[in-house]
Specification:
Elements: E1 9-21, E2 33-45, E3 49-53, H1 60-67, E4 75-80, E5 83-84, H2 90-97, E6 100-103, H3 117-127, H4 133-147, H5 164-176, E7 182-186, H6 194-211, E8 214-219, H7 222-228, E9 231-236, E10 239-245, H8 246-251, H9 256-263, H10 270-275, H11 306-310, E11 316-317, E12 326-327
Parallel strand pairs: 3-8, 3-9, 6-7, 7-8
Antiparallel strand pairs: 1-2, 1-4, 4-5, 9-10, 10-12, 11-12
Helix pairs in contact: 3-4, 3-5, 4-5, 5-6
């Protein structure tokens, strides 16, 4: 969407962990926890759009809320614009909250239907003491409405009087009225019709150029991510699987999970679609309460080996540009790999259970 810049990062996440307790702890028993985010380190560079993708429940929205300190971290660090904001109190965080705002997924549920849109958009000005009187507040709200393509004269209307696309523009105006540096867009177009979706995407692109914004763009729609993002970070079960520039990732994914996701993206050319290999993953996503040992993807991975069970992979450089493309995989995808073929279990006769070259039971189809 925007021009990717290799300068300093606006947002840095270091070994971010977020666990949620499950149920009530019994006396003498260890409490179960949901491993929503488990040791994620990531940077969002100034002026870029970083896509954060993965299946439902992988932890991407939780990570975004940790990054904006809407959720307290279990451990790790969040550094925004050079300032460590991890342990700041609510009062200490207030100046920073003006610099990062969120656009939520549901344009219906995120707006109070009993309040006028002028009041909804103007709330951040009141919270941060920037209202400057009723006339000043109205002026700034109407400027924000005009910025996102809404009629400023509709200041006193209610959300029910707007379409879904217009309601999402109201949400964007509310996020921009403070003129932040970072906008976290959590599935901002998934609830919209295709034609309206394109309008909102174009609006976000125009606003990024005009206001010099940085975006963290969360989505499960890989077609949208390819269109709007400069880099992509793919999550699986609370951990990062791969981070790469969008062109590199879509041209040659190195992680088997990412390759499987991309194989499901629709291709408009029927001939290319017929020739493309479709990768069907075995099994279900494991529970985040009891994630697998080692690589969390190994129970579903067609390339899983004994090492994947015993040792969790780290994000390491893959490909030509080591600073740009990193993958958490012991056995990354290579040209010619046929990930759609079934693989034998590790205990098949003639195989050594300790051999790194022996596939693990459950891998493949």
């Amino acid at each position: 969407m925007g021009a990717s810049q290799d300068g300093d990062a606006l947002l840095r996440l270091r070994d971010v962990v977020k666990h949620f307790p499950v149920g009530q702890r019994r006396v003498g028993a260890t409490a179960d926890v949901v491993h929503a985010v488990d040791g994620v380190s990531l940077e969002v560079r100034r002026g870029e759009t970083l896509g954060l993708v993965g299946e439902t429940g992988c932890g991407k929205s939780t990570l975004a809320r940790c990054a904006t300190r809407l959720l307290a971290l279990t451990s790790g660090r969040v550094v925004f614009d050079g300032h460590d904001i991890t342990a700041l109190s609510r009062r200490q965080l207030r100046p920073f909250r003006r610099e990062f705002q969120m656009v939520f997924q549901d344009p219906y549920g995120s707006l109070n239907p009993h309040r006028r849109v002028g009041s909804i958009i103007g709330d951040p000005l009141t919270v941060h003491g920037l209202a400057d009187g009723s006339a000043g507040r109205r002026r700034r709200v109407q400027e924000a409405m005009e910025l996102v393509g809404l009629n400023p004269e509709h200041y006193n209307r209610y959300p029910a009087e707007f379409s879904g696309g217009q309601r999402q523009r109201i949400g964007v105006a509310r996020a921009l009225v403070l003129r932040p540096k970072l906008l976290v867009c959590d599935e901002p177009v998934s609830a919209l019709d295709v034609s309206i979706r394109a309008q909102i995407i174009n609006l976000l692109a125009d606003l990024q150029r005009e206001l010099d914004l940085t975006y963290l763009f969360i989505s499960h729609d890989l077609s949208v991510v390819r269109q709007v993002c400069d880099r992509v970070a793919v999550m699986y079960l609370g951990k990062l699987a791969e981070v790469a520039p969008v062109a590199d990732l879509y041209r040659r994914p190195r992680h088997p999970y990412v390759a499987a996701l991309l194989s499901a993206v629709p291709v408009p050319d029927p001939d290319l679609s017929d020739r493309r290999q479709r990768i069907i993953l075995a099994g279900e996503v494991p529970t985040p309460v009891h994630p697998p040992a080692g690589c969390r993807f190994h129970p579903r991975c067609p390339k899983a080996r004994r090492r994947c069970v015993d040792q969790a992979p780290e994000l390491v450089p893959r490909g030509g540009d080591e600073a740009r493309h990193v993958t958490a995989c012991h056995f990354p995808v290579e040209p010619g790999d046929d990930l759609a073929l079934p693989h034998p279990p590790i205990d098949q006769p003639g195989q050594d259970a300790g051999d790194d070259l022996a596939p693990v039971a459950g891998g493949g189809r």
